[in-house]
Amino acid sequence: MENLLLFIETKDKELKKASLELLGEAARLRAAGTYKVHGVIMGGVPEDVKKKVLPYVDVLANITGPALDRYTPEGFASALAGYAKEIAPKLILASATQTGRDFLPRVAVLLGSGIASDVTGIRWSEDPVKFVRPIYGGKVLSEVSFTGYPAVVTVRPNTFAGEEPGAEEGEYLERQAGIDPGQLRTKVLRREESGQGKVDLIEADIIVSGGRGLKSAENFKVLEDLAGTIGAAVGAARSVVDAKWRDQEDQVGKSGKTVSPKLYVAVGISGAIHHTMGMDTSKVVLAVNTDPNAMIFSYADYGIVGDFAQVVPAMTEEFRKRLGR
Amino acid sequence: MNIVVLAKQVPDAEAHIDIGEDGKGLTVEQKFTANVFDEFAMEEALRLKEKHGGKVKIITLGTGKATEVLRTGIAMGADEALLLEDGAFLNGDGYATALALSRAAAKEPFDVILCGRQAIDDDRGEVGPMVAQFLGIPHGGGIIKLDIADGTATVECPAEGGKEVLEVKLPALFTAQKGLNEPRVPPIMGVMKAMKAAIPRVAPAELGISPEEAGAAGSKVRTEKYFHPKKKAAVQMIQGEPQEAAVEAVRILMDVERIL
């Protein structure tokens, strides 16, 4: 049986949701007898993460060493490629998070492999396996395959439906990375948190985004209230980032982030192409805009023509009632 | 300080893209522009030169319209340009493209390579980190601040829920994103100079790249076909007064779409 290697991410000592999604997909393939699944976690692994991951995999390898205490692309790439050389997997899968997209290309070069980045679909039953990835900002999808293996793939979060693991727990291994931290030419000096436990837009299940139609930076409070009630992240259109109402890291679109949440609520956003190319793979889109002819309605599943100041608080209130929050 | 910029001319975000009948080829409307992220890279290169001296060389791979990005770079202030122009270079995946660009970048000693976080046409975001790995140098991805002193760069990168400050030893590669700077508008004199500039070209053999390693032949990822994303069904407008519409929207999201 061929090996499938997963790179598993943790944040603040917890398993990332995007990694859990990959694990679910891998567990399905494992149960079907298609692949033997190896998971890799870098740096220390908390006991409850280990417990949570083991039912999804055949092997969980925890690779540690002073060079892996903090993320650096060089250190992580070298450690993951090293483990891949040992088990010769057919595929190496990681989530297309900031970290995944940052160092997996280096892993591909270290292994002399190709890479398909930010895929939104995998056709496992085809031979060779096909991968679907959006190009031109999502206007076109390309179906790609590999001419040789191992193949390296990063998967856009919210691509797979989460699957439950099997009952059988995998084996747990500990490995030393054997990388001299002195060799690393990148050093993390410090990390600055901008929001407590803030979910990155790329990985969020629900995003509430605002544009010029909100009229002021202060009015984003209305979106934050809704987001807080339904566990959403708050995104922004370019215009409001350029106006400094919101941080650059909140920007969705061409010069910002590409997101694919289960629900995208676009409030006061006109729907220019440079915005929609960052969100058009969202599963469900609800648009709220005063202009019935706004472009955003062409990208939406549901639309409300109305003033955000009336519609959004009413939604928050109704969600609160129904969710008991 | 020797600075190399890797850049790409891409179809405008609004350009119309048609897929061939068999799903094999794409026809792209002839509206091109410099990749937005590469403009941040060019600007940062020029600022480094203004501060530390040295020269800026801009490199691209492609034919025809590809040259335009080099002229944009020269107009902004780049000292040299290099075009990887040969049929054999074309239609490469990230691997083949990065291999060629890494050889071209390393033709002369360099201190810093700058490129955009990703190109907005193929959206791969692979070439920067891959070039760095081919050259065995560190990289910083999606930087929003860059300072260089004593052969070491201090950079800021957004990291999930915050940002990280990294110290990276040169030579190194950095990928640029929005927030790093405001790209300058090329001055008229620069545009005139760029129009007249002779662009040196280089073929695979001159970079030590064999025909099997270049472009489509050297690619490890093959495109099987192109297709359009599924069209969304027409939008369903939720009618009524704001209060009613809001309640109905919540009902649909929870009971029909079952999102919460």
Describe the 3D structure.
The complex is a heterodimer of chains A (325) and B (260). Chain A has two domains: 2-183, Rossmann fold; 201-323, Rossmann fold, CATH 3.40.50. Chain A is globular, with a radius of gyration of 21 Å. Chain A has helices at residues 17-31, 47-53, 73-87, 98-111, 220-230, 238-242, 273-276, 308-323, and strands spanning 2-7, 10-11, 14-15, 35-42, 59-64, 91-95, 115-119, 121-123, 130-135, 140-146, 151-155, 171-176, 186-193, 206-210, 233-236, 263-267, 284-289, 302-305. Chain A is α/β, with parallel strands linked by helices. In chain A, helix 3 packs across helix 4 (98-111) and helix 5 runs parallel beside helix 8. Chain B is α/β, with parallel strands linked by helices and 260 residues long. Chain B has one domain (2-207): HUPs (Rossmann fold, 3-Layer(aba) Sandwich). In chain B, strands 9-13-8-1-6-7-14 form a seven-stranded parallel beta sheet, sandwiched between helices. Chain B has a three-stranded antiparallel beta sheet with strand order 10-11-12, with no helix packed on it. Chain B starts with a strand and ends with a helix. Chains A and B meet through helix 3, helix 4, strand 7, strand 9 and strand 10 of A and helix 3, helix 4, strand 9, strand 11 and strand 12 of B. Strand 13 (186-193) of chain A pairs antiparallel with strand 12 (162-169) of chain B.
CATH topology of the largest domain in chain A: Rossmann fold
Estimate what percentage of residues of chain B fall within beta strands.
25-35%
User: What structural class results from the helix and strand content of chain A?
Assistant: alpha/beta
Q: What kind of sheet is the major sheet of chain A? A: 7 strands, parallel
Number of helices of chain B: 6
Would you identify the CATH architecture of chain B?
A: 3-Layer(aba) Sandwich
- Average of the residue pLDDT scores of chain B: 96
Strand order of the largest sheet of chain A: 7-11-6-1-4-5-12
Q: Which sequence of SSEs, written as H and E, runs from N to C of chain B? A: EEEEEHEHEHEHEEEEEHEEEH
Number of domains of chain A: 2
- The structural domain count of chain B equals 1
Question: What is the H level of CATH, i.e. the homologous superfamily of the largest domain in chain A?
Answer: HUPs
List the quaternary state of the chains: heterodimer
Spatially, the strands of the biggest sheet of chain B line up as 9-13-8-1-6-7-14
Strand coverage percent of chain A: 25-35%
Major sheet of chain B: size, sense and barrel closure? 7 strands, parallel
CATH class of chain B: Alpha Beta
Radius of gyration of chain A: 21 Å
